[in-house]
């Protein structure tokens, strides 16, 4: 069945066709590791994880690469301000390496709790400085750069289609540009590929390069690492919608200026999450990390469930009430998964099972419509009469390959149904009366009901088949 994804490049749902049939090369913009991972990250990476799971569910082989930004991301997201990690190291009186290691661990701990599968390749920016220098050299050779007193810049006016991802009106941008902080920049949209170390301050992280001692710009990191592991053109690039106008626009510009080839086929962006109806910010105190989730006694998997009830392209408003309600629903689902493991006598309709499978695939392949896929699961649980408990259980476990709610860990309690218990007593009586024929018949009946009996020395062992 075909997969459709909303491609920001072109602003429409498109049929997904990988460059190499059967294989998907996907790059996810990773976190800048200078602070605790928060609910906005959780939303973004549960989305990426669900996307990867959906692709795999379709039988595609996925190479999932994610970067860790541990240098070069400046406080104003452009080319001004301080390096976020250097600044944090200064305030915490730690080395930049300690900072990035600590928050990288925090990020992956949180991801594990959300059952987000680790990408196939996790690459740190500081491990790929040479790749970045080589890429800047290539862009320089192709004539797209110029040097200022603080770095090597990309001349966006040299690229015909600069801003195509965001649909930027470059002329309009030029006219409306606020007073440029950096008067040496030729165009408002120009950005740094390599920044020189400041003369008045010693940076903890800096590298020698043919351009001068310094550090890479944030954007060049993603271009260099994605192309290193996935090639000059690859299938999917993800990130938050906030990356569209600058970070991803600049990734495209510098990559295509370097290679002359199309950089990425599908740009897939997740929307923002707000908390309590407001944009998250530290000053408002609505900036929730995993420890806040746990302090509020919310199961992290309930957060995952909550995210699945929204489409990744719509803005999700997180409240503690919505988290609690998602947890209640998840617990009800778990209870159903327990109940469904108790056998019933219903015969399944093969056509019905197929119908559910196809519908499920239809929903998830339609730009990851997880809300509809969840509704389908609830319809199966609550309304479907033509499918047995066992087959419902199996179907839901199959759906959970995409949902990632760990439903396979829900085990039936070792409680033997009353009916079976009564039959066991009857059989014991028959055996005591040496009526072995009757005893065997009862044993067969119990077997038909899904339980196996084993006569031990002084008691009968019962096991669910
Ligand atoms: Zn990136």
Task: Fill in the keyword field for this structure.
alpha/beta, four-stranded antiparallel β-sheet, 465 residues, Four Helix Bundle (Hemerythrin (Met), subunit A), Rossmann fold, binds zinc ion
Rg, nearest Å? 28 Å
Percentage of residues in strands = 15-25%
- Strands of the widest sheet, in order across it, are 5-4-3-10-11
CATH topology category name of the largest domain: Rossmann fold
The biggest beta sheet is recorded as:
5 strands, parallel
- What's the domain count? 3
CATH class category of the largest domain: Alpha Beta
Distance between the termini: 35 Å
Which ligands occur here? Answer: zinc ion
**DSSP strand tally:** 16
CATH homology superfamily of the largest domain: HUPs
Mean pLDDT: 91
Low-pLDDT runs of 5+ residues are none
Number of helices: 15
Overview of the molecule:
With 465 residues, the protein is of the alpha/beta class. The chain folds into three domains: 267 residues, Rossmann fold; 120 residues, Up-down Bundle (Four Helix Bundle (Hemerythrin (Met), subunit A)); 47 residues. 43% of the residues lie in helices and 16% in strands. It contains 15 helices and 16 strands. A five-stranded parallel β-sheet has the order 5-4-3-10-11, sandwiched between helices. Strands 6-7-8-9 form a four-stranded antiparallel β-sheet. Helix 6 packs across helix 7 and helix 9 packs across helix 10. It is elongated. The protein starts with a strand and ends with a strand. The model has no long low-confidence stretch (mean pLDDT 91).
């Amino acid at each position: 069945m075909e997969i459709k994804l909303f491609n920001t490049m072109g602003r429409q749902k498109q049929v997904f066709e990988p460059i190499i049939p059967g294989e998907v090369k996907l790059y996810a913009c990773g976190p800048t590791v200078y602070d605790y991972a928060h609910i906005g990250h959780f939303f973004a990476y549960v989305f990426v994880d669900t996307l990867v799971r959906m692709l795999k569910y379709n039988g595609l082989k996925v190479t999932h690469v994610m970067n860790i930004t541990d240098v070069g991301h400046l406080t104003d997201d452009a080319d001004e301000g301080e390096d976020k990690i250097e600044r944090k190291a200064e305030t915490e009186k730690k080395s930049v390496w300690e900072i990035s290691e600590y928050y990288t661990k925090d990020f992956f701990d949180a991801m594990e709790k959300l059952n987000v599968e680790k990408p196939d390749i996790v690459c740190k920016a500081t491990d790929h400085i040479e790749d970045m220098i080589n890429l800047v050299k290539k862009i320089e050779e192709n004539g797209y750069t110029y040097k200022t007193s603080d770095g090597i810049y990309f001349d966006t006016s040299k690229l015909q289609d600069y801003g195509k991802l965001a649909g930027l009106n470059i002329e309009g941008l030029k006219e409306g540009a606020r007073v440029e902080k950096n008067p040496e920049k030729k165009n408002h949209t120009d950005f740094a590929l390599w920044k020189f170390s400041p003369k008045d301050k010693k940076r903890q992280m800096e590298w020698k390069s043919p351009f001068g001692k310094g550090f890479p710009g944030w954007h060049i990191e993603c271009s260099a690492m994605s192309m290193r592991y996935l090639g000059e053109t690859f299938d999917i690039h993800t990130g938050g919608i906030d990356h569209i106008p600058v970070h991803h626009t600049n990734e495209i510009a510098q990559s295509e200026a370097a290679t002359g080839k199309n950089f990425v086929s599908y740009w897939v962006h997740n929307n923002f999450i707000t908390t309590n109806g407001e944009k998250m910010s530290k000053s408002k105190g609505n900036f929730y990390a995993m420890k806040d989730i746990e302090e509020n006694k919310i199961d992290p998997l309930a957060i995952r469930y909550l995210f699945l009830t929204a489409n990744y392209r719509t803005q999700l408003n997180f409240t503690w009430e919505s988290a609690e309600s998602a947890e209640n629903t998840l617990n009800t689902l778990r209870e159903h998964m327990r109940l469904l493991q108790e056998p019933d006598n219903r015969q399944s309709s093969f056509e019905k099972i197929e119908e559910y499978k196809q519908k499920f695939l239809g929903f998830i392949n339609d730009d990851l419509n997880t809300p509809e896929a969840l509704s389908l699961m609830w319809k199966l649980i609550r309304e479907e009469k033509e499918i047995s408990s066992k087959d419902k259980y199996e179907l839901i476990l199959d759906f959970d390959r995409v949902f990632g709610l760990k439903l396979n860990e829900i085990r039936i309690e070792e409680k033997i149904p009353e009916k079976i218990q009564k039959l066991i007593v009857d059989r014991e009586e028959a055996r005591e009366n040496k009526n072995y024929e009757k005893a065997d018949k009862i044993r067969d009946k119990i077997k038909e009901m899904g339980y196996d009996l084993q006569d031990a020395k002084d008691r009968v062992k019962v096991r669910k088949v």
